[in-house]
Specification:
By secondary structure, this protein is α+β, with helices and mostly antiparallel strands. It has 5 helices and 2 strands, in the order αααββαα.
Length: 132
């Protein structure tokens, strides 16, 4: 197995940032996520992931992912992407992902409470509105 494939398989576990997940949470991860974690090129990584699926090392599924877009107007819009699981650890990774997703509301509430304790309820009321 090449070093690149080994790094991709390790990235698909989702163990980054001291055991915490990055922006998109736990796997499955798309090629762009893998590139953010280990570097490289999205097109080449996508091609490698497809080859790894043919070899039985990863399994793909279509997931919806919010993506920032400016058309029709600026915002985040759901978009289908191909996400990949590491076959060898898929059951364990799916169980960890479920636990993480199930605790989402509690994490959000804790984060909100922390922000309120740091900045107070009126922190954004003193910010300038509009342009320059």
């Amino acid at each position: 197995m090449t070093e690149n494939k080994r790094q991709i398989l390790e990235a698909l576990r989702g163990w980054y940032h001291n055991g915490e997940y990055f922006e998109y949470g736990p796997p499955p991860y798309c090629a762009a996520d893998v590139v953010m974690l280990i570097g490289g090129n999205v097109r080449n990584t996508s091609r490698t992931l497809q080859l790894m699926e043919d070899q039985g090392l990863v399994k793909s599924e279509t997931i919806m992912r919010d993506q920032a877009c400016e058309v029709p107007k600026f915002g985040h819009y759901p978009r289908p992407v191909t996400g990949y699981w590491r076959v060898e650890t898929m059951a364990e990774d799916q169980a960890r992902a479920k636990i993480w997703r199930d605790a989402s509301k509690e994490r959000s509430e804790r984060a909100f409470e922390k922000m309120m304790s740091l900045f107070g309820p009126y922190a954004c009321m003193n910010q300038p509105q509009g342009g320059t």
